[in-house]
Amino acid sequence: MKAILLAGGKGTRLRPLTIHTPKPIVPIFNRPFLHYQLDLIRQVPEIDEVILSLNYQPRRIEEIFGDGSDLGIRIRYVVEPMPLGTAGAIKYAGDRLTESVVVFNGDVLTQLDLAAVIRLHRERAARATIVLTPVENPSAYGLVETDAAGNVQRFVEKPSPDEITTDRINAGIYVLEPDTFDRIPSDVAWSIERSYFPSLIERGDTFAAYVYEGYWIDIGTPEKYVQVHRDIMDGRFRAAPFDPTPEGGVSLAADARVEAGATIEGPCFIDEGVTVKAGARIGPYSVLGRQVLVEEDATVDGSVVWPNGRVCREATVREAILGRNCHVGRSVRVGAGAVLGDKTILTDFSRV
Ligand code: GDD
Ligand code: MG
């Protein structure tokens, strides 16, 4: 059995982080996001190949995962000539498939029992099976109505307030039968959410729903990107490399240097080669990537700082995300919600 990961989106909502780092490989702690998805897929031994469907910066992604042998799973890359939309991409990537295929949106993280979804698909002899999950506000997702027997009745992508009739949304994980792909036109952008799923419902094909109520998140916005780190640090989702067991939940690399007089408050993650100088304070829910330097009397609190950043003396970074190689000058204040692209330089005393 094969799995297709849709990882071709531009990651617009995560800009500027995704200008140099496509969304599928933004780091969660210190591992590219797709690693976490591959961890889940590897739990189903029947899946012997993962097809990565790409079009935005595909080389960057290939360089990281190669043929998958390091991870113990075969990886193949299919690069679209142009963005074909979610259904077009599946058809293009799954061109020669003859058996059921598992499809993942490339930006969702979950602890779902994937094998159970595949079992349901087979038991129901479904043409398609979709995973649903409850969320507080469905407006940013695909809303899915089902009947009492667990069949999908209605699919509304990005519903307006008056269309919200349930809290269950499309979790972005499907099992599909490739012989249904004939209804997807070739070589034009086509959406699985807006066209393919509604067409299954119209034709009365068996379209089963698997409801999952455990951990699930789409990391596609800065808020959710920060949230996933918090959830892992809070133990709501267990994932390497964060180890919640040390005292206070402070995950500190062996070679990180924390000077006497610095304060570290967990939970937080401090990666290899980090230096925290005397008088500096690292507050809860902070993530310091490799080689980050936090100077005397600076504060980093509730923020994710990608590798090689420098926070100069007396600066404060609160509830922010800093891309790679950022320079936060002396006494700078970076406040809640700030997202700095790679190599941002903030001159001493700036306020952001
Ligand atoms: N290869 C390829 N080509 N991939 C694409 C394309 C394309 O043209 N367009 C989008 N993708 C990939 C994205 O990289 C992402 O992994 C996935 O398809 C979904 O696209 P998003 O842009 O993240 O969509 P969304 O989050 O607004 O909504 C989707 O996901 C929700 C769950 O997180 C929809 O599927 C919703 O129905 C769903 O609820
Ligand atoms: Mg998304």
Describe this structure in words.
The protein is an alpha/beta fold. The protein has two domains: 2-211, Spore Coat Polysaccharide Biosynthesis Protein SpsA, Chain A (Alpha-Beta Complex); 243-346, UDP N-Acetylglucosamine Acyltransferase, domain 1, CATH 2.160.10. Helices cover 17% and strands 29% of the residues. The protein contains six helices and 30 strands. The strands form seven sheets. Strands 5-4-1-6-11-8-12 form a seven-stranded mixed sheet, sandwiched between helices. It has a six-stranded parallel sheet with strand order 14-17-20-23-26-29. A hairpin with a 2-residue loop joins β2 and β3 (31-32). α3 (85-93) packs across α5. The chain is elongated and about 65 Å long. The N and C termini lie far apart (49 Å). The relative contact order is 0.12.
Taking all Cα atoms into account, the compactness measure Rg is 22 Å
Assign a percent range to the helix content: 10-25%
Name of the CATH class of the largest domain? Alpha Beta
CATH superfamily of the largest domain: Spore Coat Polysaccharide Biosynthesis Protein SpsA, Chain A
Question: Main beta sheet, described?
Answer: 7 strands, mixed
- Tally the helices: 6
CATH topology of the largest domain: Spore Coat Polysaccharide Biosynthesis Protein SpsA, Chain A
How would you describe the shape?
elongated
End-to-end distance, in Å? 49 Å
User: How big a fraction of the residues is strand?
Assistant: 25-35%
Structural class: alpha/beta
Uncertain residue ranges: none
Number of domains: 2
